[in-house]
Specification:
Order of helices and strands: HHHHHHHHHHHHHHHH
Shape: flat
CATH superfamily: Hypothetical protein af1432
Mean pLDDT: 94
Low-confidence stretches: none
CATH class: Mainly Alpha
Radius of gyration: 21 Å
CATH topology: Hypothetical protein af1432
Number of strands: 0
Number of helices: 16
Helix content: 55-70%
Largest sheet: none
Number of domains: 1
Length: about 325
Protein backbone atom coordinates (compact mmCIF):
# COMPACT_ATOMS: atom_id res chain seq x y z
CA UNK A 1 0.00 0.00 0.00
CA UNK A 2 1.36 3.43 -0.96
CA UNK A 3 1.50 6.42 1.36
CA UNK A 4 -1.22 8.04 -0.74
CA UNK A 5 -3.52 5.07 -0.22
CA UNK A 6 -2.88 5.16 3.53
CA UNK A 7 -3.79 8.84 3.60
CA UNK A 8 -6.94 8.18 1.59
CA UNK A 9 -7.98 5.53 4.10
CA UNK A 10 -7.31 7.95 6.94
CA UNK A 11 -9.61 10.50 5.29
CA UNK A 12 -12.41 7.93 5.22
CA UNK A 13 -11.90 7.17 8.91
CA UNK A 14 -11.62 10.74 10.17
CA UNK A 15 -13.66 13.04 7.93
CA UNK A 16 -17.39 13.71 8.28
CA UNK A 17 -19.81 11.65 6.14
CA UNK A 18 -20.49 14.66 3.89
CA UNK A 19 -16.82 15.60 3.38
CA UNK A 20 -15.23 15.35 -0.07
CA UNK A 21 -12.91 12.34 -0.15
CA UNK A 22 -9.86 12.41 -2.39
CA UNK A 23 -10.47 8.84 -3.50
CA UNK A 24 -13.97 9.77 -4.66
CA UNK A 25 -12.97 12.81 -6.71
CA UNK A 26 -14.80 13.20 -10.01
CA UNK A 27 -11.39 13.24 -11.64
CA UNK A 28 -9.32 15.47 -13.86
CA UNK A 29 -9.82 16.82 -17.36
CA UNK A 30 -7.03 14.48 -18.50
CA UNK A 31 -6.30 11.17 -16.82
CA UNK A 32 -2.88 10.84 -15.22
CA UNK A 33 -1.03 8.43 -12.99
CA UNK A 34 -1.80 9.18 -9.30
CA UNK A 35 1.02 10.33 -7.04
CA UNK A 36 2.32 7.60 -4.73
CA UNK A 37 2.57 10.06 -1.80
CA UNK A 38 -0.09 12.76 -2.16
CA UNK A 39 -3.86 12.40 -2.47
CA UNK A 40 -5.46 14.24 -5.39
CA UNK A 41 -6.41 17.48 -3.60
CA UNK A 42 -3.04 17.82 -1.89
CA UNK A 43 -1.38 17.43 -5.27
CA UNK A 44 -3.63 20.18 -6.65
CA UNK A 45 -2.71 22.47 -3.77
CA UNK A 46 0.98 21.97 -4.54
CA UNK A 47 0.50 22.68 -8.24
CA UNK A 48 -1.26 25.96 -7.51
CA UNK A 49 1.32 27.00 -4.92
CA UNK A 50 4.16 26.49 -7.41
CA UNK A 51 2.43 28.21 -10.32
CA UNK A 52 3.59 31.49 -11.83
CA UNK A 53 0.08 32.92 -11.42
CA UNK A 54 0.28 32.41 -7.67
CA UNK A 55 3.63 34.18 -7.41
CA UNK A 56 2.29 37.19 -9.32
CA UNK A 57 -0.35 37.78 -6.63
CA UNK A 58 2.31 39.38 -4.42
CA UNK A 59 2.24 42.50 -6.61
CA UNK A 60 -1.48 42.78 -7.32
CA UNK A 61 -3.76 45.25 -5.56
CA UNK A 62 -6.20 44.08 -2.93
CA UNK A 63 -8.03 47.36 -2.16
CA UNK A 64 -5.46 50.12 -1.70
CA UNK A 65 -3.72 50.79 -4.99
CA UNK A 66 0.07 51.16 -4.69
CA UNK A 67 0.09 51.75 -0.91
CA UNK A 68 3.28 53.23 0.51
CA UNK A 69 3.20 51.26 3.79
CA UNK A 70 4.61 47.75 4.18
CA UNK A 71 1.65 46.33 6.06
CA UNK A 72 -1.25 46.79 3.66
CA UNK A 73 -2.68 43.66 2.15
CA UNK A 74 -1.95 42.54 -1.39
CA UNK A 75 -3.87 39.95 -3.38
CA UNK A 76 -1.36 37.35 -2.11
CA UNK A 77 -1.79 38.12 1.59
CA UNK A 78 -5.56 38.15 1.07
CA UNK A 79 -5.32 34.68 -0.48
CA UNK A 80 -3.27 33.40 2.45
CA UNK A 81 -5.74 34.80 4.98
CA UNK A 82 -8.65 33.18 3.13
CA UNK A 83 -6.75 29.89 3.17
CA UNK A 84 -5.99 30.08 6.88
CA UNK A 85 -9.57 30.93 7.86
CA UNK A 86 -10.91 28.18 5.61
CA UNK A 87 -8.54 25.54 6.98
CA UNK A 88 -9.51 26.40 10.54
CA UNK A 89 -13.19 25.96 9.73
CA UNK A 90 -12.64 22.78 7.69
CA UNK A 91 -10.61 21.13 10.42
CA UNK A 92 -13.24 21.90 13.06
CA UNK A 93 -16.03 20.53 10.83
CA UNK A 94 -13.99 17.46 9.81
CA UNK A 95 -14.04 18.41 6.15
CA UNK A 96 -11.21 18.03 3.64
CA UNK A 97 -8.50 20.56 4.47
CA UNK A 98 -6.46 19.82 1.35
CA UNK A 99 -9.43 20.57 -0.90
CA UNK A 100 -10.25 23.74 1.02
CA UNK A 101 -6.67 24.96 0.78
CA UNK A 102 -6.38 24.19 -2.94
CA UNK A 103 -9.56 26.15 -3.70
CA UNK A 104 -8.51 29.04 -1.46
CA UNK A 105 -5.03 29.34 -2.96
CA UNK A 106 -6.43 29.26 -6.50
CA UNK A 107 -9.58 31.36 -6.15
CA UNK A 108 -8.03 34.74 -7.13
CA UNK A 109 -5.33 33.66 -9.60
CA UNK A 110 -7.19 35.38 -12.42
CA UNK A 111 -7.40 38.79 -10.80
CA UNK A 112 -6.18 41.72 -12.86
CA UNK A 113 -3.61 44.35 -11.91
CA UNK A 114 -5.17 47.08 -9.75
CA UNK A 115 -7.78 44.75 -8.27
CA UNK A 116 -11.43 45.28 -9.12
CA UNK A 117 -10.59 48.50 -10.97
CA UNK A 118 -8.66 46.49 -13.55
CA UNK A 119 -11.43 43.92 -13.69
CA UNK A 120 -14.04 46.60 -14.35
CA UNK A 121 -11.91 48.10 -17.11
CA UNK A 122 -11.38 44.81 -18.95
CA UNK A 123 -15.02 43.84 -18.53
CA UNK A 124 -16.05 47.19 -19.99
CA UNK A 125 -13.66 47.38 -22.92
CA UNK A 126 -13.57 43.74 -24.06
CA UNK A 127 -16.73 42.64 -25.91
CA UNK A 128 -16.27 39.15 -24.45
CA UNK A 129 -16.53 40.53 -20.91
CA UNK A 130 -14.17 39.67 -18.08
CA UNK A 131 -14.75 38.06 -14.67
CA UNK A 132 -11.82 37.17 -12.47
CA UNK A 133 -13.31 33.88 -11.23
CA UNK A 134 -13.69 32.66 -14.82
CA UNK A 135 -10.16 33.83 -15.58
CA UNK A 136 -8.85 31.95 -12.54
CA UNK A 137 -10.33 28.77 -13.97
CA UNK A 138 -8.96 29.58 -17.43
CA UNK A 139 -5.48 29.97 -15.96
CA UNK A 140 -5.46 26.58 -14.25
CA UNK A 141 -7.20 24.85 -17.17
CA UNK A 142 -5.47 26.40 -20.18
CA UNK A 143 -2.76 28.99 -19.59
CA UNK A 144 -0.45 27.68 -16.90
CA UNK A 145 2.55 25.47 -17.73
CA UNK A 146 2.95 26.90 -21.24
CA UNK A 147 -0.60 26.10 -22.26
CA UNK A 148 -0.91 22.65 -20.71
CA UNK A 149 -2.76 23.88 -17.64
CA UNK A 150 -2.51 22.38 -14.17
CA UNK A 151 -5.06 19.61 -14.84
CA UNK A 152 -6.72 20.04 -11.45
CA UNK A 153 -9.44 17.90 -9.92
CA UNK A 154 -13.07 18.69 -10.72
CA UNK A 155 -13.83 19.68 -7.12
CA UNK A 156 -11.01 22.25 -6.99
CA UNK A 157 -12.04 23.75 -10.33
CA UNK A 158 -15.67 23.95 -9.20
CA UNK A 159 -14.68 25.76 -6.00
CA UNK A 160 -12.50 28.26 -7.86
CA UNK A 161 -15.23 29.08 -10.38
CA UNK A 162 -17.95 29.43 -7.74
CA UNK A 163 -16.13 31.27 -4.97
CA UNK A 164 -18.03 34.54 -5.42
CA UNK A 165 -21.24 35.29 -3.53
CA UNK A 166 -23.30 34.60 -6.65
CA UNK A 167 -21.72 31.18 -7.11
CA UNK A 168 -23.05 27.81 -5.95
CA UNK A 169 -20.15 25.55 -4.92
CA UNK A 170 -20.91 21.85 -5.26
CA UNK A 171 -18.89 20.81 -2.20
CA UNK A 172 -18.99 21.89 1.44
CA UNK A 173 -15.31 22.71 1.11
CA UNK A 174 -16.17 25.13 -1.68
CA UNK A 175 -18.85 26.67 0.51
CA UNK A 176 -16.26 27.23 3.24
CA UNK A 177 -13.94 29.09 0.85
CA UNK A 178 -16.81 31.16 -0.51
CA UNK A 179 -17.69 32.39 2.98
CA UNK A 180 -14.08 32.64 4.15
CA UNK A 181 -13.31 34.91 1.20
CA UNK A 182 -15.97 37.38 2.30
CA UNK A 183 -14.98 37.17 5.97
CA UNK A 184 -11.33 37.77 5.09
CA UNK A 185 -11.72 40.72 2.76
CA UNK A 186 -14.23 42.59 4.90
CA UNK A 187 -12.08 42.24 8.01
CA UNK A 188 -8.66 42.92 6.55
CA UNK A 189 -9.98 45.77 4.40
CA UNK A 190 -11.41 47.37 7.54
CA UNK A 191 -8.09 46.85 9.31
CA UNK A 192 -6.21 48.46 6.40
CA UNK A 193 -8.70 51.35 6.29
CA UNK A 194 -8.13 52.02 10.00
CA UNK A 195 -4.36 51.87 9.42
CA UNK A 196 -4.75 54.36 6.55
CA UNK A 197 -6.76 56.78 8.70
CA UNK A 198 -9.84 56.51 6.50
CA UNK A 199 -11.92 55.45 9.49
CA UNK A 200 -11.46 54.75 13.19
CA UNK A 201 -12.57 51.82 15.30
CA UNK A 202 -14.95 54.15 17.14
CA UNK A 203 -16.83 54.81 13.90
CA UNK A 204 -17.78 51.17 13.39
CA UNK A 205 -21.57 51.05 13.99
CA UNK A 206 -22.82 49.71 17.31
CA UNK A 207 -25.08 47.30 15.45
CA UNK A 208 -21.87 45.53 14.43
CA UNK A 209 -19.74 45.90 17.56
CA UNK A 210 -22.45 44.79 19.97
CA UNK A 211 -22.82 41.52 18.06
CA UNK A 212 -19.38 40.75 16.68
CA UNK A 213 -16.95 42.70 18.87
CA UNK A 214 -15.09 45.99 18.96
CA UNK A 215 -11.79 45.01 17.31
CA UNK A 216 -10.88 43.43 14.00
CA UNK A 217 -9.51 40.35 15.74
CA UNK A 218 -12.57 39.92 17.93
CA UNK A 219 -14.91 40.17 14.97
CA UNK A 220 -12.92 37.68 12.92
CA UNK A 221 -12.95 35.27 15.84
CA UNK A 222 -16.71 35.72 16.24
CA UNK A 223 -17.60 34.93 12.63
CA UNK A 224 -15.34 31.88 12.41
CA UNK A 225 -16.67 30.47 15.70
CA UNK A 226 -20.24 31.18 14.67
CA UNK A 227 -19.83 29.38 11.34
CA UNK A 228 -18.33 26.34 13.05
CA UNK A 229 -21.04 26.19 15.74
CA UNK A 230 -23.88 26.69 13.27
CA UNK A 231 -22.54 24.17 10.73
CA UNK A 232 -21.44 21.45 13.19
CA UNK A 233 -23.00 18.10 12.35
CA UNK A 234 -24.78 19.46 9.26
CA UNK A 235 -24.32 18.88 5.55
CA UNK A 236 -24.27 22.62 4.84
CA UNK A 237 -21.91 25.45 5.78
CA UNK A 238 -23.77 28.43 7.16
CA UNK A 239 -23.89 31.13 9.83
CA UNK A 240 -26.51 32.06 12.39
CA UNK A 241 -29.07 34.77 11.68
CA UNK A 242 -27.39 37.40 13.89
CA UNK A 243 -24.00 36.68 12.32
CA UNK A 244 -25.40 36.88 8.79
CA UNK A 245 -26.98 40.25 9.59
CA UNK A 246 -23.78 41.55 11.20
CA UNK A 247 -21.85 40.51 8.11
CA UNK A 248 -24.31 42.35 5.85
CA UNK A 249 -24.04 45.41 8.09
CA UNK A 250 -20.23 45.29 7.93
CA UNK A 251 -20.25 44.97 4.16
CA UNK A 252 -22.68 47.87 3.77
CA UNK A 253 -20.57 49.99 6.12
CA UNK A 254 -17.39 49.20 4.17
CA UNK A 255 -19.01 50.10 0.86
CA UNK A 256 -20.17 53.38 2.36
CA UNK A 257 -16.95 54.37 4.03
CA UNK A 258 -14.09 52.59 2.25
CA UNK A 259 -14.88 50.96 -1.09
CA UNK A 260 -16.33 54.21 -2.42
CA UNK A 261 -14.10 56.57 -0.40
CA UNK A 262 -12.56 59.25 -2.66
CA UNK A 263 -9.20 59.09 -0.87
CA UNK A 264 -8.88 55.32 -1.05
CA UNK A 265 -10.14 55.25 -4.61
CA UNK A 266 -8.47 58.40 -5.95
CA UNK A 267 -6.19 56.52 -8.36
CA UNK A 268 -8.69 53.94 -9.60
CA UNK A 269 -9.93 55.97 -12.57
CA UNK A 270 -6.33 56.36 -13.72
CA UNK A 271 -5.73 52.64 -13.29
CA UNK A 272 -8.83 51.82 -15.33
CA UNK A 273 -7.72 54.20 -18.08
CA UNK A 274 -4.27 52.59 -18.13
CA UNK A 275 -5.80 49.13 -18.57
CA UNK A 276 -8.09 50.35 -21.36
CA UNK A 277 -5.18 51.99 -23.18
CA UNK A 278 -3.12 48.80 -22.93
CA UNK A 279 -6.04 46.75 -24.26
CA UNK A 280 -6.53 49.06 -27.23
CA UNK A 281 -2.82 49.03 -28.00
CA UNK A 282 -2.33 45.26 -27.91
CA UNK A 283 -5.57 44.61 -29.76
CA UNK A 284 -4.22 46.73 -32.61
CA UNK A 285 -0.61 45.50 -32.23
CA UNK A 286 -0.82 41.79 -31.48
CA UNK A 287 2.74 41.47 -32.73
CA UNK A 288 3.71 43.13 -29.44
CA UNK A 289 2.30 40.25 -27.43
CA UNK A 290 4.65 37.51 -26.21
CA UNK A 291 4.85 34.59 -28.67
CA UNK A 292 2.81 32.35 -26.34
CA UNK A 293 -0.24 34.61 -26.68
CA UNK A 294 0.28 35.32 -30.39
CA UNK A 295 0.16 31.60 -31.16
CA UNK A 296 -3.28 31.36 -29.58
CA UNK A 297 -4.82 33.84 -32.03
CA UNK A 298 -6.72 32.39 -34.97
CA UNK A 299 -9.87 34.53 -35.17
CA UNK A 300 -11.47 37.67 -33.72
CA UNK A 301 -12.62 36.01 -30.51
CA UNK A 302 -9.25 34.45 -29.75
CA UNK A 303 -7.60 37.81 -30.50
CA UNK A 304 -9.66 39.54 -27.81
CA UNK A 305 -9.14 36.68 -25.40
CA UNK A 306 -5.37 36.67 -25.91
CA UNK A 307 -5.17 40.38 -25.15
CA UNK A 308 -7.25 39.91 -21.99
CA UNK A 309 -5.12 36.94 -20.97
CA UNK A 310 -1.93 38.94 -21.28
CA UNK A 311 -3.11 42.11 -19.56
CA UNK A 312 -4.95 40.37 -16.71
CA UNK A 313 -1.82 38.37 -15.90
CA UNK A 314 0.25 41.52 -15.38
CA UNK A 315 1.25 42.64 -11.92
CA UNK A 316 0.60 46.26 -10.95
CA UNK A 317 4.21 47.27 -11.46
CA UNK A 318 4.54 45.44 -14.76
CA UNK A 319 1.38 47.10 -16.10
CA UNK A 320 2.71 50.54 -15.13
CA UNK A 321 6.18 49.91 -16.56
CA UNK A 322 4.66 48.53 -19.80
CA UNK A 323 2.51 51.63 -20.14
CA UNK A 324 5.53 53.86 -19.54
CA UNK A 325 7.59 51.91 -22.07
CA UNK A 326 4.89 52.28 -24.72
CA UNK A 327 3.58 55.79 -24.13
CA UNK A 328 5.84 57.92 -21.92
CA UNK A 329 8.56 59.76 -23.86
CA UNK A 330 12.12 59.23 -22.72
CA UNK A 331 14.81 61.86 -22.38
CA UNK A 332 16.93 62.12 -25.55
CA UNK A 333 20.66 62.16 -25.33
CA UNK A 334 23.62 61.89 -27.69
CA UNK A 335 26.13 59.18 -26.93
Amino acid sequence: MTIREELELREQEILAPWASLSVKSRGRMRDEVPCDIRPAFQRDRDRILHSKSFRRLKDKTQVFLAPTGDHYRTRLTHTLEVSQNARTIAKALRLNEDLVEAIALGHDLGHTPFGHAGERALNRICPLGFRHNEQSLRLVDVLERDGRGLNLSWEVRDGILNHQTSGSPSTLEGQIVQKSDKIAYIHHDMDDAIRAGILTEEEVPEAITCVAGSTTGARLDYFIHDMIRTSQGRDVVTMSGPAEQAMKDMRAFMFRRVYSDPVAKAEESRAEKLIEVLYDYYYSHVEGLPAFFQKRINDETSRMRAVCDYISAMSDHFAISTYEELFVPKAWSVL
